[in-house]
Amino acid sequence: MIKILFPYESSGYAIPLADGKWAIVDMGCERGLSFLSQMTNFNIDLKQISLVALTHLHADHVDIDGLVALLKNSSCDFICPKLCFDQIKLIDQESNDVSELLQKSNRLTLVDDKFSMDCNGVAIKGVPTIHELHSEFILGANFSYRINNCIISGDTPVHSLFKEDHCDYMMGNTGIPVEYLILNLAQLSVEDITSQDYVDEFRKNKYQAAHGILHDFLDVLGNELFKPFFIDLHTLIPTHIRRLEIKETYDLYVKEIQKKTAIHSYSFEITSS
Ligand SMILES: [Zn+2]
Ligand SMILES: [Zn+2]
After folding, report:
1. Are 129 and 156 within 8 A, CB to CB?
2. For residue 233, what are the CA distances in angstroms to 33, 123, 227, 251, 255?
3. 26 or 140: whose pLDDT is higher?
4. pLDDT tens digits, residue range 17-28?
5. Residue 184 contacts residue 130 (beta carbons within 8 Å)
6. Ligand nearest to the CA of 141
7. For the residues 88-94, what does the mean pLDDT come to?
8. Angstrom distance (rounded) from CA 117 to CA 163
9. For 129, which of 26, 79, 121, 209 is 20 to 30 Å away at the CA?
10. Ligand 1 geometric centre to CA of 64 (Å)
């Protein structure tokens, strides 16, 4: 069962592999919880982790203490977009040597273009997407990953994830349909969902253009191109909801998405855990 380590505000997921092993995607933090405290709370021993995949190196996706602990106490591999690796030095000024430790460990793969690897018999695929919150976040500095039957968007905006030329990735072509979509829908308040002016203003300020938002996802749900994807989809997990009125925001997402799924006869569940 997929574990959502930080269900509302941040980004961190444990995806089960074979033989009791786990792949971790992102290592965020939320409300006093850290990656390491969540490993304890979810009863995951660091030694059971085979892979840590970082979507990008914003501070809400990476945990320096967690990385150090994994380097010491596990034999996991790490993957991270090549174009943003240097930013790890900016996350925590006192931990500049983490990037060096990672590189020296020979356990780090810097991912570029369309990426795939085998991890404990499970296919891991990555696709470069846009997350242009800061000017250095050009295409390729942010990735979304597909692990087995699950896609994790990272901070990827919906329009970057659901692109026509990503169809192969979204649809799989691995013989395994995507059943779980963990989708960043990083809105700030109920007001910014319900007010188009507010959305437009935030788009200008880039925040919403740089993350998934409900409006874009509703458009994608109506796009025939992705019909096969949504027919196969079993569970949608909206995540990375930001700051304000989280419960109300989440409930609003569910209501609006369900209106669309009813029109298209999609039957996926929506859940936060
Ligand atoms: Zn980010
Ligand atoms: Zn983020």
Report:
1. yes
2. 30, 18, 10, 20, 18
3. 26
4. 988 999 999 998
5. no
6. 1
7. 65
8. 22
9. 121
10. 16
For the chain, report the end-to-end CA distance as a whole number of angstroms.
Answer: 10
Which residues are 117's β-sheet partners?
Answer: 124
Map out the domains of the chain with their CATH numbers: 3-270 (3.60.15.10)
Residue 10 C-alpha to ligand 2 middle, in angstroms?
6
What is the DSSP annotation of the chain? --EESS-SSS-EEEEE-GGG-EEEEEE--BTTB-HHHHHHHTT--GGGEEEEE-S---TTT--HHHHHHHHHH---EEEEEGGGGGGHHHH-GGGTHHHHHHHHTT-EEEE-SSEEEEETTEEEEEEEE--TTSTT--TTSEEEEEETTEEE-TT--HHHHS-GGGHHHHH-SSS----EEEEE-----HHHHH-HHHHHHHHHTSTTTTS--HHHHHHHHT-GGGHHHHHH--EEEEE---SS-HHHHHHHHHHHHHHHHHHHT---EE---
Q: Can you give the pTM of this predicted structure?
A: 0.90
Q: What value does the CA radius of gyration of the chain take, rounded to a whole number of Å? A: 18
User: Please, are residues 35 and 265 in contact by the beta-carbon 8 Å criterion?
Assistant: no
- Cβ atoms of 164 and 225 within 8 Å: the answer is yes
What distance in angstroms lies between residue 193's CA and the mean position of ligand 1's atoms? 20
pLDDT tier at 173, thresholds 50, 70, 90: low
CA of 155 to the centre of ligand 1 (A): 5
Q: Please state, in angstroms and rounded to a whole number, the distance separating the CA atoms of residues 96 and 88.
A: 8
Per-residue pLDDT band for 86 (boundaries 50, 70, 90) equals confident
